[in-house]
Amino acid sequence: MLNNEAYAPPLHSLPRSPSSVCYTPTNASKPLRATTTSSSSSVTMKNINSNNSNDDFEASAASFAPATLFVIYARNRIGLLGAYFSTVYVDVATLTIFSSSIKRREEEAEGITLIMGWPIIFLFPPPDSLFITAMAVISFTGCAHAGLSEVRGIHLQYSKFWKSGSQKSNQIYISARRGMQLAYTPPFLAGLTSLVFFPHCDDIRYLLLSSALIIHFLKRLLEVQFVHKYSGGVALDSGITITVSYLMSTVAAIYAQHLTITQGLREPPIDLKYPGILLFLLGISGNFYHHYLLSQLRSSSSLFRSHSQTNDDKEYKIPRGGLFELVICPHYLFEIIEFVGFSFISQTLYTFAFVVGTTFYLIGRSYATRKWYLSRFKHFPQKVKALIPYLY
Questions:
Q1: Which residues contact 79 (CB under 8 A, 6 or more apart)?
Q2: How many domains does the chain have?
Q3: Is 107 domain-assigned?
Q4: Is 210 exposed, middle or buried (0-12, 13-18, 19+ CB in 10 A)?
């Protein structure tokens, strides 16, 4: 008679035991689920619904069945010790298979939640903040309304329009240089202060946004001091409006970015911060170049002087060079590009709302500016559009 060392019965003749597989031909056409208990390491195949959500478990059961047969064979072949170690192997394999299945299903569920809960894949979900929600609405509607007012002839009183419209008897004017310094200094200081109060030094997106805002307003202050040549003034109420707008939008943009960190908001699936850096650099460079071209008009003679020759506009001339050959406000165009760069770096709902509103404002302002040039220069080129070459 042969002992266990010399003879191992074929698998199909093995007696049924607590560790054997309970599986009948009547269930063969249905998908199966494998379950195990740590006390007996027994395995049972149970019927489950054949739907897409159970595909991972069907694959797990298919991977698990050979390991079960291996336990049965080991128990009959090499005795209880071998069966013990093989049982441990099955337990580890079971936990590994099913934990990976559960993890995949959780990731799929999170993906579905992301798509269903917040469908805009290039933005952070909105933070839980009434202040940011209110600021997004105010920034968009306020800037868009200001742009519509420019089209209607109701202007913020600075630059060419500093004495436009009906004059209030008690209106206060300050110099243009002082007014622009008033507008740009508070948001510049707010950007610097944010690095002290919200020092997220390990978050590259936050640092990029704060740095871009600081550079933007520092560049504006340097232009006011060393580049621009002013001849008019700024109405005090318009200067205050511009200052508050710049300050609050800067604070809101930085605070919204701060909340994405502290509230643990999920990063957008589409990362736009590096394209945003390129757009920011393009916008700020183009804006500075055309501001420089405008400043040169005041220091050189031109044949294209305003024919009205009033004290208010006698220093204005038709700009030349760069994109001034195609549009009358290329500096506005590059400012929009720069602001789009801000929104790409940030990828928060607030910055996009602010950029869209600001774009509407600059569209209206550029329309009013082109209309102003047409009214004061007899030979203003009709091919020169307001903001977008060949289109608008």
A1: 4
A2: 2
A3: yes
A4: buried
- pLDDT tens digits, residue range 340-389? 999 999 999 999 999 999 999 999 999 999 999 999 998 999 999 999 99
Q: Which two tokens mark 273?
A: 């911060």
Helices (H), the chain: 55-117, 130-152, 176-197, 204-226, 236-262, 273-297, 330-346, 349-376
Contact status, residue 209 vs residue 99, Cβ threshold 8 Å: no
Split at pLDDT 50, 70, 90, the class of 297 is confident
Say whether both 136 and 75 belong to one domain: no
Structure tokens at 162: 């500093």
* pTM passes above 0.85: no
Which residues form the domain of 55? Answer: 11-117
Is 383 part of any domain?
no
Residue with tokens 């911060």: 273
Rg (CA), the chain: 35
Is 387 domain-assigned? no
Residues 177, 180: Cα–Cα separation, whole Å: 5
